[in-house]
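[step 3/7] inverse_fold.run input=structure_tokens len=178
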């Protein structure tokens, strides 16, 4: 694939992300448009790793396709619409597989797990088996941690989120270096 084709694919992925994350903002105190997070994650990927950059741009599109609290049927329909747009863009099949692996769209593990254990189970079961998803998820969690630290948050909830992201990175990094 030549550079012009890669640029066309990056633009197509960006359009999907722009449409999906329109009117979405990062949690306070950051409060930037959510697309800034997507770009931060993409910029963590090597410039010569085209597939990783595509996955980084798209990493939250399926998960965030519908607004939080939307009816289940609306969520299902919007997520399927995003999947269809990714398929129609004719990216390498590995892109959709990695975006699906990163998408935290269902509960993982035994019922009744606390939030941290459920999240880490999702990381182990869904993200870890996919090398491309693992690469992007490490960057995603790093960016999330950086944003929390930059905001100077030190309350209990922020510390729990930092622990969650750091624990995820430890699991994913251990596997990705073997």
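[step 3/7] decode complete -> sequence:
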């Amino acid at each position: 694939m030549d550079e012009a084709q890669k640029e066309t694919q990056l633009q197509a992925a960006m359009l999907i992300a722009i449409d999906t994350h329109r009117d979405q903002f990062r949690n306070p105190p950051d409060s930037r448009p959510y697309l800034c997070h997507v770009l931060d994650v993409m910029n963590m990927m090597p410039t010569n790793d085209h597939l990783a950059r595509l996955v980084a741009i798209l990493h939250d599109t399926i998960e965030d396709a519908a607004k939080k609290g939307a009816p289940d049927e609306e969520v299902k329909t919007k997520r399927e619409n995003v999947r269809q747009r990714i398929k129609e863009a004719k990216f390498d099949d590995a892109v959709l597989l990695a975006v699906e692996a990163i998408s935290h769209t269902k509960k993982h593990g035994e019922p009744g797990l606390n939030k941290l254990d459920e999240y880490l189970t999702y990381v182990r079961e869904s993200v870890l088996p996919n090398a491309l998803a693992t690469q992007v998820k490490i960057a995603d969690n790093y960016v999330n941690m950086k944003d929390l630290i930059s905001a100077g948050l030190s309350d209990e909830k922020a510390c729990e989120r930092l622990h969650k992201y750091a624990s995820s990175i430890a699991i994913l990094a251990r596997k990705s270096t073997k």
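[step 4/7] annotate
The chain has one domain: 3-176.
Helices lie at 3-21, 34-42, 50-58, 72-88, 93-102, 115-127, 131-150, 156-176.
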